[in-house]
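Supplementary Note 3. Input sequence used for the single-chain structure prediction.
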Amino acid sequence: IITSLVFLLMVVTFPISGWFALKIVPTYERMIIFRLGRIRAPQGPGVVLLLPFIDHWQRVDLRTRAFNVPPCKLTSKDGAVISMGADIQFRVWDPVLSVMMVKDLIAATRMTAQNAMTKILVKKSLREIQVEKLKIGEQLLLEINDMIKSWGLEVDRVELSMEAVLQPPQENLVGPLATMPPVPGLEGLDGTIQQLAAHFLSNTLALAGSGTGTPEADSMETVNEVEPPTTPLLTTNGSAWRKPSVDELFSAVEPILSEALVGQVGASYQVNIALPSGAWSTYFIDLSSGNGRAGRGVPEGSPDVILEVAEKDLQDLFLGDLRPLGAYMSGRLQVRGDLHLALKLEELVKAMKQRR
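The predicted structure, written as discrete structure tokens, is reproduced below.
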């Protein structure tokens, strides 16, 4: 009744009321409206009609935003005291959750990132922090996303920055990559290159002074810090790697199911898989009771969530190459039902990765 009266009043006083009731929402924003205290579906982009007196609204920016975690003092595993900060980029993927779950997005995400960064770095030595900065950043990104996905946010990028080493390690565990003064004559080079050059020069001078013969060969090992090596699940012909079929994937799921996993997830899923031939195949994962079940067909009773995904994307999901949240955001995973329950499938993916 109240809504009808307000709408009638707005019609009677039009076009004056239109000046206050019509709002334009750009493409990169969504408008969240509370009508008589109840939240409505996100509005926009385009022209949005607001009812005076009974509608309260808030704009949500969907563009990527950035903030920095101020440098803070940390003590590494080997006793070194460092000043470490980070630059973080994030965006809103669910406007409703971002309004309902947290008041200050940047402040809450900054605090979460700082706590996660501290938790990870105190378990690392100074050498590991210096060498594995990219890998630690990737780990930090995953941990932050696990904590903030229920807020409707997703972190896209984390870049760690070491401001200074305030105190060297208590034990000599850092090795040649610890901070050291510049090498005379090589001041213009990168610090790591200076250290390598100093290493080879010292070997040459030592050989010249001792008059010995051929120097002992130095060995160098390259490490890919961006993408850690993954072990393929199955092999064929002894050398050619291939991804498992859908039947093999769901057969691998069965041994992983447990009461603990059911307690973490507590939902049943119907998975409709688009095969390369154009046909569809249906499987189920029931993590609602007992030890859980998985296999071909539909679950007993009505599923909590229905997922639609291509066979290749399902393989990437189960092998850990694609995260459920990223698949949903990119449109490669279609969800019908509770999105929060759908994202809980990440617990199953983690269990499969640990089993491998």
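The mean pLDDT is 78. The chain has three domains: 2-61, 65-167, 243-355.
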